[in-house]
Design brief:
The chain is an alpha+beta fold and 801 residues long. Helices cover 49% and strands 18% of the residues. It has a six-stranded mixed beta barrel. Helix 23 (720-754) packs antiparallel against helix 24. The protein is globular and about 105 Å long.
Length: 801
């Protein structure tokens, strides 16, 4: 019986090539996008599954409650927490802490690479599923100077197949370490990303030498360590949650906190729920946030539903053409359930053929496209293909075929045999027309949604990258001093041909890099955390910052910090009067540093345009300057960079020359948004194509049904223009309805996105461009068919009557 069903289905698909091609194309586009999303979901849910006790391992996170009642969640927690839990709670099997600070330039003789690592102990191997290629995991972290490096780090330093045990690795700013182990590649994906693990027995020494922040007994430092707890029994999770909540209350009650904080709350997160998971500050790894995964899933659902609507619409349109076939088969005794199975088999077959087409689209087009999107590369997402995944794709396609075909199958199998055989009956058209209109309207509303999103997001990102921030940003090269003397470096680089201006600063302007200091006006004033920059006397001129009152810094300060320059927002925030009135007024930085306001600059966007202009302080303290800001001649940028590199090698032979263009650093501040236009481009294109295919197929069918009506109108004197307008009205009405539905939803979602930016483009032009674009697509989809149909000779179309 199934063989017969397949034969009939294949015959019908072959006989009606045009409608079959439209159905297969629409479903293939929808399924191909879903293939991408299924692969991403499979990728993300595979994180941290290789750990031996993942079902009872938890990370302790910190919720920081700010003084203004806002909340910020951190993936980190205080280092003393681990030992406290292990010593006082018998239901805990083991605890491992990962403490930052093992980062910097690592070198062996003439080889130098950057490493980023943590300090830990042998509990690391009890809790996590890592193993060693070289070394003994039981003793590798016993000595204070011990360090275990990853296989990749080992190959960068020593080459492939070399056993580096016993070699001494110098980490700049931290110390010398003896290599006691080399990790194997982890057996699966993990959020734990590091180049090296050092012994935490070295932490006390490093603290005393001020090479790292105090962490060993510091409960207030919740941002330098990660704490993972292994329970003896997974049923004790609730007990763990209650315990750490009580620990947090006990340890932070009455303790002096940071000026911006009101309190801290500790809570748990299962290790296999970290990815995908919420976005947390200090989150380790480059995995995709849970919200983005949900967003992609919703997009996939919308696209496949649109493709399913398309299949529904075309199948219902085909019902009238197949009415005589249904009538004849029922007359020969075919049961309703047999016809239902027949049509469902054809629907599933169409979906499976579409899956084959989608597999080619996925492999040759979508997979390379998505893997090259900046966000996907940053998240290290690779869309692997394997047999298990294709079996999942096949099951998904069968489900799509059943769901998309169930309504048309029920409808067609329910047709009355006598009415179906009535040659002059148009009964099948009336009940389906309204439903098809609804389907098509929803499709174009969805298409409008994606196109408006694409246009306005692209316009906004383009705007923030080319906006006037209030300072010079073009042709500025920032050079990392890497601990070298600022004055010497500035003198050396100022002689380089192509250098027009040079200044020094603590960090880059216009980026997310941040430094702040407690600030108050008067001893009794409330402490406020204010952003600050350390600069030299050439900084304001180099960046074209406008000093509206007072004077710039000078070189005769003799190293003592006595004055600051602030912006207008600072004066307004602390109620210090206008620019002239504020000069000479005293403020307190930190605990007891008294300084006076010597100058006021015009407000400018020292942070990305996602943030409003807030108070900022410019300080003069040259030992704190960590980078040079060099204005280069735009006519010979490559040549100037070569000369700068050569100059660097002349006075620093141990560190690599590190530089970046300021505009590139500023662009990185929008990295979370940069990939959205790339993603929406393919989604919007597929959504528009699916909607256009539905419109194309429906138009072809409806116009075919009205050929005789058109011929009669032409005989009665109607011209091509009148007939074209008549045929277009119903379709244009549907598109207008789609706009009426899609536009308000688009405006709402667009407003939600634009809330991320304080400074925004006018979205109205985006709405207009999107609507014009869709009307052009509609005209191209059906306009040619309408004109072609209106030109048909009446004699030719009526000769069979």
């Amino acid at each position: 019986m199934l063989k017969n069903y397949l034969k009939v289905a294949i015959t019908d698909l072959a006989r009606n090539k045009y409608f079959s091609a439209l159905n297969i194309s629409g479903l293939a586009l929808g399924i191909s996008i879903c293939m991408v999303i299924i692969t991403i979901i499979d990728n993300q849910f595979s994180y941290d599954s290789f750990h031996p006790h993942a079902d009872r391992t938890y990370r302790i996170n910190t919720e920081a409650i700010r003084s203004n009642q806002s909340v910020e969640d951190y993936a980190t927690s205080p280092l003393p927490l681990g030992n406290y839990l292990k010593s006082n709670y018998p239901f805990i099997d083991d605890v491992v802490s990962l403490t930052g600070g093992l980062s910097g330039e690592a070198n062996i003789k003439d080889k130098t690479i950057s490493v980023n690592g943590f300090f830990s102990n042998k509990s690391f191997f009890n809790v996590f599923g890592f193993s060693l290629r070289y070394g003994n995991s039981a003793t590798a972290l016993d000595n204070p100077d011990a360090i275990i490096i990853t296989r990749k780090t080992s190959e960068k330093l020593f080459g492939e197949g070399i056993n580096p045990l016993g070699r001494v690795l110098q980490v700049k700013g931290v110390g010398a370490f003896t290599i006691t182990g080399v990790f194997n590649e982890p057996p699966g994906k993990t959020h734990l990303e590091f180049d090296a693990i050092g012994s935490d027995k070295e932490l006390g020494v490093l603290e005393k030498a001020s090479k790292i922040l105090p962490v060993k007994d510091n409960w207030a430092n919740y941002y330098s360590s990660y704490t993972y707890v292994l329970l003896k029994n997974k049923s004790e999770k609730n007990l763990l949650e209650k315990s750490i909540l009580a620990v947090g209350k006990a340890k932070y009650s009455g303790k002096l906190l940071e000026s911006t904080d009101k309190g801290y709350k500790l809570y748990t997160q299962a290790i296999n729920k970290i990815v995908p998971g919420p976005v947390l500050s200090n989150n380790m790894g480059n995995a995709m946030p849970r919200d983005v995964l949900w967003y992609l899933s919703v997009i996939g659902f919308v696209v496949i539903v649109s493709a399913g609507f398309n299949y529904n619409s075309l199948s219902l349109a085909r019902a009238l053409s197949r009415s005589k076939e249904i009538g004849i088969r029922k007359s020969f005794g075919a049961k309703k359930y047999q016809l239902l199975i027949q049509f469902l088999v054809q629907s599933v077959l169409t979906s499976l053929i579409a899956m084959v087409v989608a597999a080619f689209v996925f492999h040759f087009l979508l997979r390379p496209f998505f893997e090259n999107i900046d966000f996907f590369r940053a998240s290290e997402i690779v869309l692997y293909e394997n047999l298990e995944l294709y079996i999942l794709f096949m099951l998904f396609s069968v489900s799509v075929g059943l769901i998309a075909g169930i309504f048309p199958s029920i409808y067609m199998s329910s047709l009355n045999a006598l009415k179906a055989l009535n040659q002059n009956s148009n009964f099948a058209l009336a009940p389906k027309l309204g439903f098809r209109k609804i389907l098509l309207t929803i499709q174009f509303a969805m298409a409008l949604l994606f196109v408006i999103g694409l246009i306005n997001i692209y316009r906004e990102i383009n705007y923030v990258m080319h906006a006037d921030y209030g300072f010079r940003k073009e042709n500025i090269v920032n050079i990392d001093l890497q601990g070298d003397n600022y004055a010497v470096a500035r003198q050396m680089f100022s002689r380089v041909k192509g250098v027009i201006g040079i200044s020094g600063s603590s960090h880059s302007i216009g980026t997310t890099r941040d430094e702040a200091i407690d600030t108050r006006v008067g001893k009794a004033g409330e402490r406020e955390r204010i952003r600050d920059f350390t600069i030299d006397e050439a900084y304001l001129d180099n960046f074209k910052l406008h000093l509206i009152s007072g004077k710039n810094f000078t070189t005769d300060i003799n190293g003592k910090e006595t004055s600051v320059i602030v912006n207008q927002a600072f004066l307004k925030y602390f109620h210090l009067g206008n620019a002239s009135e504020s000069l000479g007024k005293s403020i307190i930085l930190g605990d007891s540093l008294y300084v006076t306001i010597s100058g006021v600059v015009k407000d400018f966007n020292y942070q990305p345009l996602t943030k409003e202009i807030k108070p900022v302080i410019f300080r003069y303290n040259t030992p704190a300057i960590s980078q040079l800001n060099i204005l280069v001649d735009k006519s010979d940028v490559p040549g100037t960079l070569v000369r700068l590199s050569n100059t660097w090698k002349g006075f620093d032979k141990s560190n690599l020359f590190k530089y970046s263009f300021l505009v590139d650093e500023m662009q990185q501040a929008y990295s979370a948004f940069n990939s959205i236009p790339q993603l929406l481009t393919i989604i919007a294109a597929i959504s528009v194509m699916v909607a256009s295919l539905g419109l194309l197929g429906l138009a072809a069918f409806l116009l075919k049904q009205r050929i005789k009506e058109i011929s009669i109108r032409k005989i009665l004197g109607a011209n091509v223009t009148q007939i074209s307008f008549l045929l277009s009205k119903s379709f244009l009405y549907l598109i207008v309805m789609g706009v009426c539905i899609g536009l308000p939803v688009s405006i709402y979602l667009d407003t939600l996105f634009m809330k991320n930016f304080v400074y925004r483009v006018n979205p109205v032009w985006g709405y207009l461009l999107a609507m014009i674009f869709l009307f052009i697509i509609v005209f191209l989809s059906i306009g040619i068919q309408i004109i072609k149909t209106s030109r048909i000779s009446p004699v030719k179309s009526l000769r069979t009557e």
